[in-house]
Amino acid sequence: MTAFTLRRKADGQPLRDAMRDAGLSGPALADATKRVDVTGRGISAATVGKLAGRGDSCTSTCRLRTAWLIAESLGASMQRLFDMPGVSTDTVER
User: Fold this and answer.
1) Alpha-carbon span 28 to 9, nearest angstrom
2) Where are the beta strands (DSSP E) in 1-94?
3) How confident is the model at residue 84 (pLDDT cuts 50, 70, 90)?
4) Which pLDDT does position 33 carry in this prediction?
5) I need a surface site. Which of 31, 33, 63, 84 has the fewest CB within 10 A?
6) CA atoms within 13 A on the CB side of 12
7) Per residue in 64-81, pLDDT tens?
8) What's the Cα-to-Cα distance from 1 to each of 18, 43, 55, 76, 86, rounded to whole Å?
9) Measuring CA to CA, how many Å separate 89 from each of 15, 27, 61, 85, 93?
10) How many CA atoms lie less than 13 Å away from 9 in the CB half-sphere?
């Protein structure tokens, strides 16, 4: 089973803006995700850094769960930070 992934918007600029607006650094955002995660695990500061970063060390995609934890911790909508999937054409009704 493949995990559903989302792509960050505008090379992570909306995420960086939301972090700045919330007054959270990467490690502080990682800690905040632990508070909204029912398992208490949250996401790592390294993952936040890769999503919010620029250049060769960053990543453009993350799991749906990761995006939700970040958005919830920032008080932002996932649609503001990540591209949402469009309508699927995989299944054709007959």
Assistant:
1) 21
2) 5-8, 61-63, 82-83
3) confident
4) 98
5) 84
6) 20
7) 999 999 999 999 999 999
8) 32, 21, 30, 29, 20
9) 29, 39, 21, 11, 10
10) 16
The mean pLDDT of the chain is 91
- How many DSSP H helices and E strands does the chain contain? 5, 3
What's the pLDDT at 2? 55
Query: Per-residue pLDDT for 36 more than 80?
Result: yes
Tell me how far apart the 2 most distant CA atoms of the chain are, in Å.
51
Name the token pair of 30.
């990682």
Which residues, 6 or more positions from 18, have their beta carbon under 8 angstroms from its beta carbon?
A: 74, 76, 80, 81
